[in-house]
Amino acid sequence: MEDSPIRVRIAPSPTGLLHIGTARAALFNWLFARKYGGAFVLRSEDTDRQRSLPEFEQDILNGLLWLGITWDEGPMPDGSEKGSYGPYRQSQRLAIYQKYIDKMLAENKAYYCYCTQEELEAERKAQEEQGLPIRYSGKCAHLDAAPKGRLPQVIRMRTPLEKVSFKDLVRGTVEFDLSLFGDLVIAKSREEVLYNFAVVVDDYEMKISHVIRGEDHISNTPKQIALAKLLGLPSPKFAHLPLILNQDRSKLSKRTNKVSATEYRAAGYLPSAMVNFLALLGWHPSGNKEVFTVDELIHEFDISRVQKGGAVFNQEKLDWLNREHLRLLTDEQFASLAQDFAPAGTDIQTLIALAPLAKQKLKTLGGITSEFQFIFSLPRYDAQMLVWKDGSVEDTIRILRQVLEKLEAGLPLADILEYESKERGRGAVYWPVRVALTGMKVSPSPQEVAPILGNDECKKRIKYAIKILE
Question: What's the pLDDT tens digit per position in 189-201?
């Protein structure tokens, strides 16, 4: 796609769990990099000293790895880093930022501002009353020396009074008037730079070629382009992804949906289904196909097919995709994944036997215990539940004894049920056997359940049914 190397990045702030929006942005960057043989960089924007926590960074890293989104450079869960352009945590990059801050101050492209919060608030109110755009007046921009008795409050860039435009790979040409912004704050001090400044420096130092991120960042883009220009740095190409919306088209929120990848993992969604679903949140494949493997997504992905309008989070679509991806698993793959959700100590062979039925019935792996409780523990029910509509206790005992006798003789349950049904009627035979095996009025058929339970367990359960009837 490009002559120069493609290098993209995801730069989450470790102030919370891995958000679905961050996961979607990471996926699109990752697909773009893998499609064109580029590098995918992970950078931790941990400059918020109060809210950034190591446990949140761990959740983000582990969540991305769970989704299969691996990075070529960046911090690793064990605390190490890989890559040649680190450190990859902003909190460890202060010396780099100071070099660029000092350069801007020395070249008079930035200056110390001594205005207090109270003065700025008074200025803002006056502008509001006069119907003027809200922006800094620039009264500290031309000071030759610090006002007597005043300490610098922030460092501001000299924002050019011009329009800036850029070609967004999703939205086409986008234009902003920088004169509306005023002189922007780029650092609280030499010891603490702000978001836009750090991002510009990091993207340059890490040789990022494309910035693919949510449209909520689009207003930052002209500021970053202007800042890069003042620093004499090239700007990367930009692509702004549509917001993820609730069904009512409000911004995705935890009041309506789960919003962290951790929650979906805990609920038993497959990472392959989540990746498939996230890819379709704002991107359209070339055809009508909706179920994709990761390799198919890499082959199919094209940034030009990302939509501009908001992407609605459809829970039913996610559930459907998860069902489809469950069915793509081999029985052994299913059993291995299901072990984390089945009752402790469940034998892997039981889960392998259960897999064909479970893959058709389950919405998520998290439902395996509730949906198939009768597999994992002896069902409990009252004696009357075993008796067919117009049958009697005596008839039911007689039927169950006949079934048990043939099971003990080594006959398959399916053959036994077929034979007994011809003589006694399907309901009279199937009903008590179903209840004996599952404890349920509505359940998979005895023929489906028996191979999962095994012959010994079937005999045990039928003996128990006879016992409570007697």
Answer: 999 999 999 999 9
The contacts of residue 173 (CB under 8 Å, 6+ apart) are 165, 166, 167
Calculate the alpha carbon distances from 302 to 30, 282, 288, 311, 342 in Å: 12, 12, 15, 17, 39
Tokens found for residue 21: 């929006």
- pLDDT for position 49: 78
Which tokens is 284 given?
């359209």
> What ranges do the domains of the chain cover?
7-91+244-305, 93-241, 329-376, 383-469
Residues annotated catalytic, as ranges: 254
- Cα–Cα distance for residue pair 416/413, rounded to 1 Å: 5
**pTM score, two decimals?**
0.91
Check whether 1 has a pLDDT greater than 70: no
321 and 290 Cβ atoms separated by less than 8 Å:
yes
Domain 7-91+244-305 has CATH 3.40.50.620: yes
172: phi > 0 → left, psi -120 to 50 → alpha, else beta; which?
left
7-91+244-305 and 93-241 in the same fold: yes
- The DSSP code sequence of 215-269 is GGGTTHHHHHHHHHHHHT-PPPEEEEEPPEE-TTSSBP-TTTS--BHHHHHHHT-
CATH 1.10.1200.30 fits 93-241, yes or no: no
User: Could you tell me what percentage of the chain is helix, strand and coil, using 3-state DSSP and rounding each to the nearest 5?
Assistant: 50, 15, 40
Name the average pLDDT for the chain: 94
Taking the C-alpha atoms of residue 362 and residue 376, their distance in angstroms, rounded to an integer, is 16
| pLDDT per residue as tens digits for the range 27-50 | 999 999 999 999 999 999 998 878
**3-state SS, residue 448:** helix
Which amino acid is located at 103 in the chain? K
- 3-state class of 306 per DSSP? strand
Check residue 3 and give its pLDDT. Answer: 63
pLDDT tens-digit profile of 219-232?
A: 999 999 999 999 99
For 392-428, the pLDDT digits (tens) are: 999 999 999 999 999 999 999 999 999 998 888 889 9
- Looking at domain 383-469, its CATH architecture is Orthogonal Bundle (1.10)
Altogether, the residues listed in the chain come to a count of 470
Say yes or no to pLDDT of 153 above 80.
yes
Cβ contacts of 275 within 8 Å, gap of 6 or more = 27, 67, 68, 69, 294, 297
